[in-house]
Specification:
The complex is a heterodimer.
Chain A (H helix, E strand, L loop, with lengths): L4 E6 L11 H9 L4 E7 L5 H13 L4 E6 L2 H14 L7 E5 L1 H5 L6 H20 L7 E4 L3 E5 L3 H12 L3 E6 L21 H14 L3 E5 L1 E9 L2 E8 L12 H10 L4 E2 L8 E2 L2 E2 L11 E2 L9 H5 L10 E7 L1 E4 L3 E3 L15 E3 H10 L5 E2 L2 E2 L2 E8 L15 H15 L4 E6 L9 H9 L3 E4 L7 E5 L2 E8 L5 E7 L1 E6 L1 E3 L3 H7 L26 E3 L9 H19 L3 E4 L4 E3 L9 H5 L5 E6 L2 E6 L19 E3 L4 H11 L2
Parallel strand pairs in A: 1-2, 1-3, 3-4, 6-7, 6-16, 7-8, 16-29, 18-27, 21-22, 21-27, 22-23
Antiparallel strand pairs in A: 5-30, 9-10, 10-15, 11-12, 13-14, 17-28, 19-20, 24-25, 25-26, 31-34, 32-33
Helix pairs in contact in A: 1-5, 2-3, 5-16, 6-7, 6-14, 10-11, 11-12
Chain B lengths: L9 E6 L3 H10 L8 E6 L7 H10 L3 E6 L10 H19 L6 E5 L5 H16 L1
Helix pairs in contact in B: 1-4, 2-3
The chains are: A alpha/beta, B alpha/beta.
């Protein structure tokens, strides 16, 4: 039993100490037999505190430590490494969760939160008292990653993974790669178009022999765990042979013959498209696709394009990968009917529609046949909502709208831009755009959220009105030819993959990382990573940065071909065991064998197979099995401490 | 549950990869449940020994809740069935010892089941208080 235990109670800035009296917790911990020291600390994870703990272990010859802080999912390995650096076995350390499961969960009752924290810490001390030094265990892992989503984040991550030697299965639900970025024209800062960026990444993907790209493909099943996920993917037929040579004239003819017309999602409903389609001539892969949901199989396209094959079938493929990276992107906020007169007044559109409108318009900027001169941009539509669900700032939209305002003025003469803002957030280098827009004569107005901009129709004219706080709440009206609602990002409805992989969802309904700073691309599910805008609203640069981070994390996890696992193995008490087969029957891994010891048959653990699940523990009729780290003395000691 | 010193004490066996993340997420989202709920992590809900549960009742816990892996168990497809057998077996022992079997509950809590967890804790605490 450990006799010199060090206990550290973290304040986590004030995340814990605002609700838990940490000094009281330390004082109570110090009274427990075997505790050599109990301290509070501002941030237990800070480098200085880690060094302090190391020094304490060495100078006070501590034989075990307890850190009461955040969830072990965040800092278990941080403090295990502290123990290792100080010469202590990492399994003589116990982390107690007094943040997620105490101070935050009971922030409504600080007194009870403190009482609970005291009990949790004492339970941790009881557990560590009986802890054993355990050796490390490693399993083989496939150095392969499934990347879901071939937008810029997914393709960038796939390329970097491949460069680092990791095999990549890159799947894209749509028949064309590029995601949202392929819909945008010139991008800030480089002036490259979105389509050029996508084309460059696509060529790199195609040129790398470690990347297998599948379009029109979805993940449909997953089993196994980190290091060894068995996945199945399903292809939706393109209905055009992939051997089809990209003859744009032939494709154009097939498209023109198609009698079906549906709203074109690529242009956000501004135009129509046919059932056989390519969104733009250079879209990749070059082969067109058929929207079979809307296709009536009339066969007109087959007459001019013999590569069309309407009999193609759904196919499935199996792979084994070590990790899964989700880069499934986000959607644009769709304003509700009547929100700033959306769908009530004809000339009210979203920012995304406006960007496509600039792209597809010819010599004149027209909307529904009317020439556009005065444009009113209304900011923060669907973001920073006081009463709605989207409390967050979508980050990219201020920059995007100002960039679009500059582009529209560059392309067309006689444009006047009026920005109805709630404060402009063109952070970092994006401030350059704000300055440029201001210098080119754009008018910036601002209101608070409690006095929103109003859009009304008066005598056939669209009037946008604001109480402008920049001019002492002066009421200012603009007659607008076009009103652009600056809509932000919302989480994409990926119900199937979310439920398949059980990805945690945050308060903003985007996928949730373990910690935004410390583990920004990992989820609590081991081996499942997230990047790009499926995680939160991001600019393209921020998305790509997170993709690079996720690629580095996945590669560092898998590159050695083995993963270190918890050395929690079942242990048989051979004196008590009298072989009955119950444990072997329940073990999913064939990790329990029958063996003869001193003339009697007993169970024996095959260490290479044991995963430490503990399923064998409760079925033993004579309680002859213990699990390292979860022994009866540890578990019952904790239970007793919690009600002491 | 403000200032409720007699609130029933509930021991939760949560699982490291599945149900404990949901309990963490409940805290992150500031979804409150009684402060007399204490969680102990196990690798899998099929690993909970009846003797630990009985020990909890002997020591003074009013209720025990197994936040089971359900069909999400990373170890075995039969996890739900196995955990169910543990509960059935423990219920029988509890009856023999004169402990009301309803004081031991089990429900599948997935890694994002924050609302179901909070609801289970509130209703279980209310039931134990009645």
């Amino acid at each position: 039993m450990k006799q010199k235990i060090g206990v550290y109670i973290c304040q986590c800035g004030s995340n814990i100490s605002d609700y838990v009296n940490v000094e009281e917790v330390a004082a109570q911990a110090e009274k427990i037999e075997g505790v050599a020291l109990a301290k509070t600390t501002m941030f237990a994870c800070a480098d200085s505190t880690q060094k302090e703990i190391e020094e304490d272990i060495k100078s006070r010859q501590l034989d075990a430590i307890v850190v009461a802080s955040c969830s072990p999912k965040l800092h278990l390995f941080t403090f295990r490494n502290v123990a290792i650096r100080a010469g202590l076995n990492p399994f003589n350390y116990v982390q107690v969760n007094v943040r997620e499961q105490c101070s935050w969960a009971h922030s409504n009752n600080p007194k009870q939160a403190t009482e609970k924290a005291i009990h949790l810490v004492i339970a941790g001390i009881e557990r560590v008292k009986h802890s054993k030094a355990l050796p490390a265990i490693k399993i083989s892992a496939d150095n392969a990653v499934l990347v879901v989503g071939a937008g810029v984040s997914g393709m960038r991550a796939a390329i970097e993974l491949a460069k680092m030697g990791t095999e990549v299965v890159l799947i894209e639900k749509n028949h064309f790669v590029g995601g949202r970025v392929s819909q945008w024209n010139k991008l800030f800062i480089t002036d490259e178009t979105g389509q050029e960026v996508v084309a460059r990444l696509y060529q790199e993907v195609k040129n790398h022999n470690k990347i297998k790209l599948f379009t029109g493909t979805e993940l449909i099943s997953k089993s196994g765990g980190v290091g060894n996920f068995d996945i199945q993917i399903q292809f939706t037929p393109r209905y055009v042979l992939t051997t089809c040579k990209p003859d744009w004239e032939k494709i154009q003819k097939a498209i023109s013959l198609c009698p079906i017309e549906v709203d074109d999602d690529f242009n956000f409903g501004l135009t129509k498209r046919k059932a056989i389609y390519k969104n733009f001539p250079s879209e990749l892969p070059h082969i067109p696709a058929i929207d079979i949901v809307n296709c009536n199989k009339c066969g007109e396209c087959v007459k001019v394009c013999e590569e069309v094959d309407l009999e193609q079938q759904v196919e499935k493929l199996n792979f084994r990968v070590g990790a899964i990276l989700l880069t499934t992107g986000a959607d644009s906020y769709e304003p509700k009917k009547g929100e700033f007169a959306y769908q009530e007044i004809d000339n009210v559109i979203t920012l995304q529609q406006f960007k496509r409108l600039i792209e597809i318009s010819g010599k004149e900027l027209l909307y529904h046949g009317k020439k556009i001169r005065n444009i009113a941009f209304i900011y923060c539509v669907g973001s920073r909502q006081q009463d709605g669900e989207n409390k967050y700032c979508s980050r990219y939209c201020c920059t995007s709208v100002i960039h679009s305002a500059i582009l529209v003025k560059e392309k067309y003469e006689g444009i006047f831009n009026f920005h109805f803002t709630r404060g402009v957030r063109t952070y970092g280098k994006q401030e350059i755009l704000y300055n440029k827009a201001a210098k080119q004569g754009d008018i910036f107005l601002q209101s608070f959220e409690d006095s929103p901009t109003e859009v009304t129709s008066e005598n056939g004219k669209t009037i946008v009105k604001i109480n402008d706080i920049l001019t002492a709440n002066m009421e200012i009206e603009v007659e607008a030819d076009l009103v652009v609602l600056v809509t932000g990002m919302v989480p994409r409805e990926n119900t199937a993959i979310s439920s398949l992989l059980k990805i945690p969802i945050g308060r903003d309904k985007f996928y949730n990382e373990v910690h935004p700073k410390l583990r920004p691309v990992e989820t609590v599910i081991d081996g499942i990573l997230i990047a790009g805008t499926c995680q939160s609203p991001k600019t393209i640069m921020e998305s790509v940065n997170s993709a690079l981070s996720a690629a580095a994390k996945a590669n560092s996890l898998l590159r050695t071909g083995e993963i270190e696992l918890e050395p929690t193995l079942a242990v048989i008490d051979k004196e008590t065991c009298d072989w009955c087969d119950a444990c072997a029957a329940v073990c999913p891994y064939d990790a329990i064998e029958k063996s003869e010891v001193n003339g009697k048959f007993v169970a024996q653990i095959a260490k290479a197979n044991c995963k430490g699940c503990g399923m064998c523990l409760p079925v033993c009729p004579v309680n002859a099995i213990q699990l390292d780290g979860y022994t009866d003395v540890e578990m019952e000691g904790m239970i007793s401490a919690l009600v002491s | 549950m403000e200032n409720n010193k007699t609130a029933p004490k509930i021991l939760v066996f949560s699982t490291e990869k599945i149900s404990d993340p949901a309990i963490d997420l409940a805290g992150l989202l500031k979804k409150h449940y009684p402060a007399t709920v204490y969680s102990i992590i196990v690798p899998c809900s099929s690993a909970v020994k009846p003797k630990w549960i009985l020990h909890a009742f002997e020591q003074g816990f009013d209720g025990v809740f197994i936040a089971a892996d359900g069909s999400d168990c990373p170890y075995s497809e039969t996890c739900t069935e196995n955990t169910g057998k543990i509960v059935t077996k423990t219920h029988e022992i509890m009856k023999q010892k004169g402990i009301e079997p309803s004081k031991l509950k089990m429900a599948a809590i997935c890694s994002v089941c924050t609302d179901p967890f909070v609801k289970h804790m509130k209703t279980f605490a209310e039931a134990l208080s009645a």
